[in-house]
Amino acid sequence: MSAEATNPEAHPEARPELRRRGRTRLDLRRLGRAALLGPTSRDRLPDAIGHVAEAHRAHHPDADLSILRRAYLLAETSHRGQMRKSGEPYITHPLAVTLILAELGAETTTLTASLLHDTVEDTDVTLDQVRAEFGDEVCFIVDGVTKVEKIDYGAAAEPETFRKMLVATGNDVRVMSIKLADRLHNMRTLGVMRPEKQARIAKVTRDVLIPLAERLGVQALKTELEDLVFAILHPEEYESTRALIAAHAGERDPLPAIAESVRGVLRDAGIAAEVQVRPRHFVSVHRIARTRGELRGSDFGRILVLVGENADCYAVLGELHTCFTPVVSEFKDFVATPKFNLYQSLHTAVATPEGYVAEVIVRTRQMHRVAEAGVVALGNPYATATPDAATDPDEERVDPTRPGWLSRLLDWQQSAPDPDTFWTVLRAELAQDREITVFRDDGSATGTISLPAGASCIDAAYAQHGEAAHGCIGARVNGRLTSLSSPLSDGDTVQLLLAQDASSGPAAEWLDHARTPAARIAISSWLEAHPDRAMATTSAARAPLSVVGARGGGGNAVADLPDAPVRLAGCCTPVPPDAVAGFLVRGGAVTVHRVHCAAVAQMRAVGRTSVAVHWRATADCRVTLLAESFGRPHLLADLTEAIAREGVEVVSATVEPPVEQRVRHTYTLQLPDATGLPALMRAMRDVPGVYDVRRV
């Protein structure tokens, strides 16, 4: 496949947005070979650093360019004589990468490292030289982007390179910014590669780098990478989408007229705003076509409204919904609740009198910068860091831009046993494109836990407690007890309950409900290290365990019916001094119920003979209690010990098999004194893992 075939913007007839006014998307393609090499012949290098300086000064007027010129001279000298597979001098690649970042608004340190990002890998320049000439920060970023040696890692070189890069990104997000720009330029010139290599690189870009660009909020890079990957991996669908866009270019586009109407509405309302038409990129058009079928003219783009302040966003929304017919289902507020990748905007859709439905995005100009460039637009996140943290390469720096998903990646990658596992789990983790935040309540402090959408209490346990979560026996979500398998929602408050027994471990079925790699790796490792315990947790459900004591009898209830045996009803287990009622049943026995028991009404409804019942003067009584708990080792022994300490005799006990880590214990107990029942129930509730004790 030729280079042009892999480049969606190489077909001007397929990109009507190139001819529209008010195009706001950063035009990275404009900075191609012509901008780098100029009109000179290819065998003479131009002073292309001027293009970088011009783009950089547009965002940072007071930037010191001397360090960029020194970095360019070192890069040009080091790469001199090296050629790219496309036949261009190799220096054009770091220059192109640096121009991409400069257009996005990257600060000087990022651009310096970008110019040098291949010098340590492909030339004789060493990290020590980079550190001596440009400082620790530039050296750290260059080292983070440098690939590991294939000689040392073989087939594992690519996964280990990404592992190294992620760890470096945890300390400095600018590492990943340079990698994304590097991949974008490589994808633009991928046509010189063999088709099979194009496909391999495109798949890695699709599975890893595009999700990373999305999570870092760098939409300007993400959208172009998506189009380039689309052209390589799905050439037929790409061609059909290109033909669809080309056909639309010859038709009347309703969006400019709708945009003009919006301008008039906002002008009459006295709201200062800039209104533009945002054409959709190839992949976006393809997705819309698959969702809506036949496309109309307004489906090929969206209206973008840029204002000065956050409050103006809602003022614009009010005017739009007043003067046009809003499509309520399309409204989304990412201003009040930003996405986890820093994105903020109001999204809505309005219907025009002509029957068109136009999607509208409302944001401030600062929101627009962040929406396009993500973390790159934030400048240097370490500008206010302490000097020691900024200069000590062995100390982890606090990055205010580090999101929860990145922290999770850094945590679980340490436990990934081999490159294949790391690579597989990394792609699975990045496929989770939504994130939730839950609040933890551990009794002493309240904080937040960031988790992928669909995560369960098991994931929250391992995110908060690490390997100590092996002993988790339950959770309270928003104050209510729930099973560990319960999925969590954004904004939930989670209190995790841990067993006191250090030998507690996870059940095999936890893997069915764990969504985060950290949880799955930790559970799998524990099960592999304890095969006997793993077999026990996956064995078939056993019959309830019953323990029966030596005593029998009908308690201390007396019926006013001579020689009639008396039985205390198991449905309500009456004890002195409960008000009771007795009924004659088959066999001549008298069954005793509490008067408020539902069975009393049923007995009377079927015509059972009522018998007067009273309690003996003796204080002892028999009662049946139900204890509900989270499963853990030695629970039955601890409960019976607590009962024995209260001087109570166990007549019988039944333990049901665990269900979702919950266990039900039913005890029939002989109490020496009925007044001791409340204290007994409190003692049973105090046993770790027991969350409820009640009379049956």
Describe this structure in words.
This protein is an alpha+beta fold and 696 residues long. The chain is 42% helix and 17% strand. The protein has 27 helices and 22 strands. The strands form 5 sheets. Strands 1, 2, 3, 4, 5 and 6 form a 6-stranded mixed β-sheet that branches. The relative contact order is 0.06. Residues 1-46, 384-402, 537-543 and 545-553 have low confidence and may be disordered.
Quick summary:
With 696 residues, the protein is of the alpha+beta class. The protein has 27 helices and 22 strands.
Largest sheet: 6 strands, mixed
Return residue spans where pLDDT drops below 50 for at least 5 consecutive residues.
Answer: 1-46, 384-402, 537-543, 545-553
Measured on Cα atoms, how large is the radius of gyration? 35 Å
The amount of beta strand, in percent, is 15-25%
Distance between the termini: 75 Å
Mean of all residue-level pLDDT scores: 78
Structure summary, number of beta strands: 22
Helix content: 40-55%
Secondary-structure class: alpha+beta
Query: How large is the count of helical segments?
Result: 27
Broad shape: elongated
Provide keyphrases for this structure.
disordered N terminus; 696 residues; six-stranded mixed beta sheet; alpha+beta; five-stranded mixed beta sheet
